[in-house]
UniProtKB/TrEMBL annotation:
The chain crosses the membrane at residues 12-32, 44-64. The keyword Membrane applies. This is Superinfection immunity protein. Keywords: Membrane, Transmembrane, Transmembrane helix. InterPro entries: Phage_imm. It comes from Paraburkholderia silviterrae.
Length: 103
């Protein structure tokens, strides 16, 4: 029977550090992704992270990063071109538009 410590045991400080990192995962994700609301996410995580709902809300908010008014749709290719690669479609459009511009 051994009275020494086992290599699998760790001190309470190790667990405290691990739990603190786990607690602040939403804030860490928000700051690493340069989320535009990272300060608000950090505050939510710090104040309400102790509750499961507050932590989940901060976590989901850190993962979702959209900005209103910033997204634009790409213009659709004319239907007459069908499914062709973009470079081929650009050449076809250039061939159609170029003669009209030289007049």
């Amino acid at each position: 029977m051994s009275t020494g410590t086992h290599e699998y045991e760790s001190d309470p400080g190790h667990w405290l550090v691990m739990l603190t990192l786990l607690y602040f995962i939403p804030s860490i994700i928000a700051f690493s992704r340069h989320h535009h609301n990272r300060t608000a996410i950090r505050r939510l995580n710090a104040v309400l992270g102790w509750s499961v709902l507050g932590w989940i809300a901060a976590f989901v908010w850190a993962l979702v990063s959209f900005r209103r008014g910033r997204a634009t749709r790409a213009p659709a290719a004319p239907e007459s071109l069908g499914r062709v690669p973009e470079c081929a479609a650009a050449r076809l459009l250039t061939d159609r538009v170029h003669p009209d511009l030289t007049i």
